[in-house]
Specification:
With about 230 residues, the protein is an alpha+beta fold. About 25% of the residues lie in helices and about 25% in strands. The chain has six helices and nine strands; from the N terminus they run βαββββαβαβαββαα. The strands form two sheets. It has a seven-stranded mixed β-sheet, with helices on both faces. A two-stranded antiparallel sheet has the order 2-3. The longest helix has 18 residues. The radius of gyration is 17 Å and the shape is globular.
Length: about 230
């Protein structure tokens, strides 16, 4: 797992380019969403706002997943692109609330599976999001996503709260979800029973950020350690 923060962009240009190509394959070629592209890369205006990126690689080193994380105190997709999905509610704005977007996986059909029949890489990305959220003491993560991703989150056991109503958007149905309620660790903990590759930390929000994030920022792969009981 790689966590790439803005101050390290220059050291991981190739990794970020590879990420944008993966997003192109998923969102443009596979899902046929109306997204901005440059050549064979999917890039939008939120990528220039210095988000945090989580990248997931296979044991062979192939990039197979990513997710983008933005603080809600600045521009977000929910507030600035899809406010209609809020049904008149105010968009979340707090240093303890971040927005996730561009969650993408590109894994082969025979990729390792975990709990609920989901790809192990799905849980690994979820674990990375949870680790990051706990390390900076987040209370909520919100996301604008589609009905398919909502089903995946529910299969993974992640507590959800809908914000507003689902609406048709292009060739999909868009929905806003609050994805950081109750005990978010439980979906990752249950996954560990089915695959040794999925692990998470028992870090609590009152503790200092774990050392693994310093390691990941410099590009090392890491094992998220010590999974608490579900």
């Amino acid at each position: 797992m790689q966590l790439i923060t803005p101050e390290y962009y220059g050291e991981f240009v190739d990794d970020l380019t590879e990420m944008h190509r993966l997003r192109y394959r998923v969102f443009k070629q596979r899902l046929d969403w109306n997204v901005e592209v440059s050549g064979e890369m999917e890039v939008d205006e939120f990528d220039v706002l210095r988000p945090v990126h989580l990248l997931n690689r296979s044991n062979a080193g192939r990039l197979q997943g990513c997710v983008r994380l933005l603080a809600s105190t600045g521009p977000t997709m929910l507030r600035d692109t899809f406010p209609i999905l809020l049904d008149g509610q105010a968009a979340p704005r707090s240093h303890r609330i971040w927005e996730s977007s561009r969650f993408a996986l590109d894994v082969p059909p025979d990729a390792p599976k975990a709990n609920g029949g989901l790809a192990a890489a799905t849980y690994e990305l979820f674990a990375g999001m949870i680790e990051f959220g706990l390390s900076i003491e987040l209370t909520e993560i919100v996301t604008v996503t589609d009905a398919q991703m909502e089903r995946i989150l529910r299969r993974a056991g992640w507590p959800l709260r809908k914000i507003g109503n689902a609406r048709p958007l292009g060739n999909t149905t868009a929905i806003v979800l609050d994805t950081w309620r109750s005990r978010p660790m439980r979906c990752i903990a249950s996954a560990k029973r089915d695959t040794s590759q999925v692990r998470c930390s028992g870090l609590r929000s009152s503790e200092r950020p774990p050392r693994i994030w310093k390691q990941v920022q410099t590009g090392h792969r890491c094992a998220l350690e010590r999974c608490p009981s579900a």
